[in-house]
Design brief:
about 450 residues, alpha/beta, 9-stranded parallel sheet, D-ser_dehydrat-like_dom, D-serine deaminase-like pyridoxal phosphate-dependent protein, PLP-binding_barrel, D-ser_dehydrat-like_sf
Amino acid sequence: MSRAHVADPIAGLADERLAPSDKGLPSRAAGLTVAEFLDTRPRLGEFWTPVLVLDASAMHANAEVIQGFATQHGLELMPHGKTTMAPELWRLQLDTGATGITLATPGQVRTARAFGITSIMLANTLVAPAGLHFIADELADAGFAFSCWADSEATVDAMERGLAGFSLARPIDVLVDLGAAGGRTGARGVDTALAVARRIAASPVLRLAGVAGYEGSLGHDRSPAALDVVRGYLTELVELAAAVRPLIDGAPVVSAGGSAYLDVVAEVFASATATSDDRDAAGDDGNATRWILRSGASLLHDHGFYRGISPLDAATGVERPLRPAMRGYARVASHPEPGLALLDGGKRDFPFDEGLPVPLTVAPELGTAGRPLVGASVTALNDQHAYLRSDAALPVAVGDVVSLGLSHPCTAFDKWRFIPVVEHAGSDLVVGLVRTFF
């Protein structure tokens, strides 16, 4: 069934037909719709390796944890949808309380609009004429809330050129992107950013809506030095927000927050709210500042990078921690040396940019209980192989299945079109197939 002919396009994903080319799915799934296949109560043991598997219980718990964190700290949550590009998972967070979805490219925005998402922040510049025209058309829908970023007057010039001669129902909301030396995008310094804000405010086709930035690229650990850099940057972002406030008509937006330093974001934003004497701090003008967190990897968490850096990981002692909600499974395809085995999953199947997979257990077959795989590590990935090594003889046999903890959700989902979802980590009952759109 075409998504154009269903009232709820996300629900309509259940009517998609599965194909032999859908990696990891059982052969018998080909030709069935997602709903028909799930009605047969498939078991994980039917799936082919390598495979990526999601944990429904952990994802629902994580959605509640990150939403609870945001609410507790007076923040809105607009999680980064590029992490999964999975409308079903966007809906999970929207239903849990998120006020919108953040995306990274105009193409991702078009996908989200096709699935009925009505509140989107594009955490990037929008300068391509085709993308600008698409957004201009979408803004004819009074129920669609959209904003993008700009970090230079040249960006504003490019937006205006792209919109020249184009009729807009309303101006495009733009947030000033504040950067930092050694970081990613963003105006370098408050004074430069303020000049960009004035340029946006003067534009006939754009509306200054607030300020935003990304602190995650400024640190890679939780050392005091890294936290100080992040805290200093966020303090500048708050200073910029105060400086541009007189230029904004309506409720200003201040947004930051990946999944690594969200606690520092909450701390600095709370301090700004507590000390501000601006009239909008108490909301008595009806235009209280919207403080928006964009943590996206928190829905999945991981066994690697975010486990080591997130303030909500179980190791930090928080009462309600995030739980890893994704695992990889790969089969022992070769065991040429006592301390070396080659698995049948590699770079085309699992993320590797923020740490290699972590061996967890080994079992005689997929979907059966495994035993801990102690003393082993994955030392390298090829396109379709993982190198499992140990100083001692590995307790695995050709044909065994190794479960792998993964690192960095943002580069896990793009390798799969359909991802099976089990009830919980100890279950082999497949209760969902998450469809991705990369």
